Amino acid sequence: MKPYQQTNDFNKIIYGRRSIKTYDSSVKISREEMTQIINEASTAPSSINMQPWRFLVVDTPEGKEKLVPLSRFNKEKVAQASAVIAVFADKNNFDYAENIYGKAVEHGLMPQDVKDFQLNAFKPIYNNMSDAEMNDVIMLDAGLVSMQLMLVARAHGYDTNPIGGYEKDQIAEVFGLDNERYVPVMLLTIGKAASEGYTSYRMPAEETTFWA
């Protein structure tokens, strides 16, 4: 078997990623580049391609003023970062099914009969999902896009830190979002690291993998 050759870019993105605790607060990320980062991250897979992830980008002093008090023991990194991306999962994601599948037909990615068949098959399934079942689906998809977002940011030359410790029961309402519809997933700080961060031990595949 030919040995797998890791590229320098691969090593930089995968093995060079750190959860950064301190940021250079003078570095700004343009909204144009942030939009590009989000678009690239949004190529992540999702259940029946419903893309239930939603992003709240906090990049203004006014936004930070609202977010910092909700950030518990992460206040300093939230204040320092160029931006903070609050990732949400949308319970009403199937409302976009017609548009998503219609665009797929329009762009030649899916035949009309396949679109009609799939939407007719999936609609009753989604309509009859319990809240717990829907949460399982959308949280998995939002987790996929969040990890991809961190890797895309790294490819753009930025560093990130995923944050689970914040006031999830308050964040949607504070920023004017429907807290019954949008489920908070995590915060992602993004910017230029002011320190290299720390490496951490990762268990080898031999200890985490079962074969069948």
UniProtKB/TrEMBL annotation:
CDD domains registered for this protein in UniProt: MhqN-like
Xref: Pfam families: Nitroreductase
Domain Nitroreductase residues, every copy: 14-192
PANTHER family, A to Z: NAD(P)H NITROREDUCTASE YDGI-RELATED, NADH DEHYDROGENASE_NAD(P)H NITROREDUCTASE XCC3605-RELATED
Full protein name: Nitroreductase
Keyword Oxidoreductase: yes
Top-level taxon in the UniProt lineage: Bacteria
Family label: Belongs to the nitroreductase family.
Organism: Paenibacillus pabuli
GO-annotated molecular function: oxidoreductase activity
UniProt key word Transcription: no
Keywords, alphabetical: Oxidoreductase
